[in-house]
Amino acid sequence: MSISLFFKIKKMEHKQNNSTADHDHDLSNNNGHEGNEDHKHSGHDHMGHMEHMGNLKHKFWISLIITFPILLLSSFMGIDLPFQFTFPGSDWVVLILSTILFIYGGTPFLSGASMELKDRSPAMMTLISMGITVAYIYSLYAFISNNYIPNAPHLMDFFWELATLIVIMLLGHWIEMKAVGNAGNALQKMAELLPRNANLIDEHDIISEVNLKEIKVGQHLLVNAGDRIPTDGKILEGSTSVNESMVTGEAKAVKKTVGDKVIGGAVNGKGTLKIEVTGTGESGFLSQVMKLVSDAQKEKSRSETLSDKVAAALFYIAVVVGVIAFIIWLLITKDLNIAFERLVTVLIIACPHALGLAIPLVVARSTSLGASNGLLIRNRVALEKSKKIKYVTMDKTGTLTEGDFRVSVVESLSEKWSNSEVLRMMASLESHSNHPLAVGILEEAQKQDIQFPVPENVSVISGTGLKGTIEGRQLLIVKPSYLDDNNLNYNKNIYKELANKGNSVSYLIVDDEVAGIVAQGDKIKEEAKKTVDGLKDMNIIPVMLTGDNKEYANSVASQVGINEVYAGLLPQDKEKIIQSLQDKGKLVMMVGDGVNDAPALARAEIGVAIGAGTDVAIDSADVVLVKSNPSDILHFFTLAKNTTRKMVQNLWWGAGYNIIAIPLAAGVLAPIGIILSPAVGAVLMSISTVVVALNSMTLNLKK
Q1: Which CA distances in Å does 385 have to 177, 394, 533, 641?
Q2: Cα dist. 582→41, 112, 576, 600, 603 in Å?
Q3: N or C end of the chain: which has fewer CB within 10 A?
Q4: Is 689 helix (H, G, I), strand (E, B) or coil?
Q5: Which residue range forms the structural domain that includes residue 263?
Q6: Of the candidates 469, 493, 524, which is a domain's last residue?
Q7: Is residue 609 part of a domain?
Q8: Active site members
């Protein structure tokens, strides 16, 4: 059954596509599948649990409303304050409100702690949960003892501490989430590259539209011009140029004809195709890329943050010191209440309010500075890991180069014609094509304000180029192989020189005479060399990972100063190279802009997306270079260095006071009459919180 008959059976709707035509210039030097793919991460810290915390904004405001009456009706760590008041039954109101707050505001932390303990990795969530749980249970015990146990000594409750701890911790998490934003779903974006339906051709040549899930390997599909190819396949009938940039990152359209393979998710050009399905579902190229991204994200999520390490240390210290204090005080005083009070005081003080704000306030300030300097920080873990980065692996197209092919050379090879006349004739013939290389020639003609006539009898030379008539002359635009096949003389050294620089080369033939040559190449970004030099100054090794050919890759690498180059790579190859570097104990940053960089972006400790890249890359990255300027990578390292330094300072202020507070709370100086009361501990805690807030505001981007 012919392609033309397909349309007679059923008229299919299709969208226009302006990227391709059945027009083949020399693509031999730039037909590699190069581009980029991507990632979302969250560390093994509390950020990893935030997706389970619900709407933090709502939880914070509702918890704050509940907290106000608790503060008004209960004493501040045993101290009666002027704004407090009581009435008969007010202690019951405090108990009920505190219970509601513990369940509503505390559940996210308790859930997170459960996950951490399940993984045998207690961290921030466990520390917070320990503080609020101990505060609530002891306060409940104090309430019962004070109201229903005759002659029992009066016990101080910690409802005030419980309420403020929950509110401040919710505030800290909300600030951090608001600062970095919710991680995008890169896997969902990749899934959207495939259409929902496909045009199935049955054994009777009847075409029907079916759900993509029903398609099986071996079946035949019709792909109309402009449609997205639904599955991996092999072309049975038809020829076209396919735009694979969303999948491969390569800027140029790829010529496809009978027998060639096509990738699901790529965009078909103006030709209509009949394909045999070779891969769908889990066996398809895009699905395999998605699996690579998913696996890399899961492995990367095991990372531990600085705040987690501090929280884990505080947790273990508090438990050990608290238990020891309980035993010693029980042995000395023989009073269970006194011993229990020391234990509770140690456990509660171990979770300072300032610790909940130490990191979020710095992150908020850091993301704001980053945004004003072209950096979108989507995962704060990247800031902490930056100081250990040893390799920065970079995609080529769109990262180091503009990703936009432009005319680099126009030269007449005949005394009959000038360079501008060569461009004029080529632009005239190319005006009937929308091939990417044709677009480049037309743009150059427009740039030079060259007017050209309307060509006549334009037709495609299959697999070679175009031919037509202009002003009575027979013109051809062909690739070099045509010259070889027809024994036409040309300077092969010039061709090789241009090709080795990554140019696509086209020749103009006028009345059987080789008249001129045009070379088009991808322009290297002005900031690329500066970026590479800056990385070297930081003792970071730059590496190029590209799907493009080796000659062009080496050419670009030599111009920007990169010594380590890997070319001709598929998405899985990029990911494997990064993994091999990690297996050596090295931390890696990956910079890319396309779908095919996704596995590599996900695998790397830090994934950086170019702002002009695909949504998939951006959604899966830790950092986005909004201005698509590679030199902003250097700004990121500077910002990360300063941010990490502030984080460490704040952690010392937020948790460092525990070095003094925990031993004093345990009673190590009790023999000389010094013992830390909960009230004094609360004052110290408040001071550290204020210091943390002020210190966070001093963060800047200066070196």
Answers
A1: 19, 18, 21, 10
A2: 17, 29, 10, 12, 9
A3: C
A4: helix
A5: 3-30+194-227+232-279
A6: 524
A7: no
A8: 395
